[in-house]
Specification:
This protein is mainly beta and 310 residues long. It has a single domain, classed as TolB, C-terminal domain (Neuraminidase, 6 Propeller). 14% of the residues lie in helices and 37% in strands. The protein has three helices and 21 strands. It has helices at residues 3-30, 32-42, 47-51; strands spanning 60-67, 76-82, 87-92, 97-101, 107-114, 119-124, 130-134, 139-143, 152-153, 159-161, 172-178, 183-188, 194-199, 211-213, 225-229, 234-239, 244-248, 254-259, 274-279, 285-289, 293-298. Strands 2-3-4-5-9 form a five-stranded mixed β-sheet, with no helix packed on it. Strands 1-21-20-19 form a four-stranded antiparallel β-sheet, with no helix packed on it. Strands 6-7-8-10 form a four-stranded antiparallel β-sheet, with no helix packed on it. The chain is globular, with a radius of gyration of 21 Å.
Length: 310
Amino acid sequence: MPAKRFGFIRLRHLLLLSLVVVTALLVSFLRLDERAWFWLKEGQLSVAEQQASIWLPGYRLVVQGRPLAGLERDETSGLTYNPASDTLFTVTGKNPQLVELALDGQVLRRIPLSGFSDPEGVEVISGGRLAIIDERRRSLTAFTIDADTQSLDAADYPSFDLGFADAGNKGFEGIAWDALNQRVLLGKERGPLGLFSLPFPGEDGAAGTLQALPSKRAFVRDISSLSFDARTGHTLVLSDESRLLLELDAQGQPVSFISLIGGLNGLHRSIKQAEGVTMDAAGNIYIVGEPNLLYVFSKDAPVELPRQVD
């Protein structure tokens, strides 16, 4: 066989092998095999089962990458809906702040945070209080605010040590309030990845201990945010690395999912570093992703003409 032809065949084999390896790595990284299996299972759910769930395949994108004006350099993380004010709250890590947003993404106010090292999640819990989890300090701090609140200092409020002292930058990022069971749900990013519950009824801190919840079938590589839907008792799990929003039932079993990859589900571009998710009273789903962009998914709202975001 001529050397030139042999070299061509060898190159073709190497390219084919490289393609196989890259495909295998991609399947492993995004866990596409599990996702494909579940997609087939998801399609077998009855209409009644879909109606009893959040049912993410029924959502469509209505706001695509709306910039949060003034927060471009602040690295938003976490998101929660406050039914009392019909507004959203997020936190920023680089310059610690609690930020209140209108549902359309307009920044309403910014409250400086003292004594917080790396706030990663925020949630409205019982009694209208807010709770912030600090990943670096491995703590949960609960407090109340009103229209006159100008600043917050962690030293002025009770905090709960979440443990995992060696977690480093792989600690707790997701937080949600389970109003049905009066407990906080927590998502540990990874190393190991997991869901936990924490009874938190009192003004003086947490009662009870951190408890692991079943989540072995949650086919995601990390957990960046959580949201609980009291209407169904199901939990939304946001994964940045998997580019996925997943719905889990009360037993921690997957129910439905939606991909956050560009070109799918109305997204022009993938949601980069999806860091926060929440649902409002009408069931609309809000996601914040860096560089501080707001995305909204809805089952009923009219579609907004999507704007291109570079």
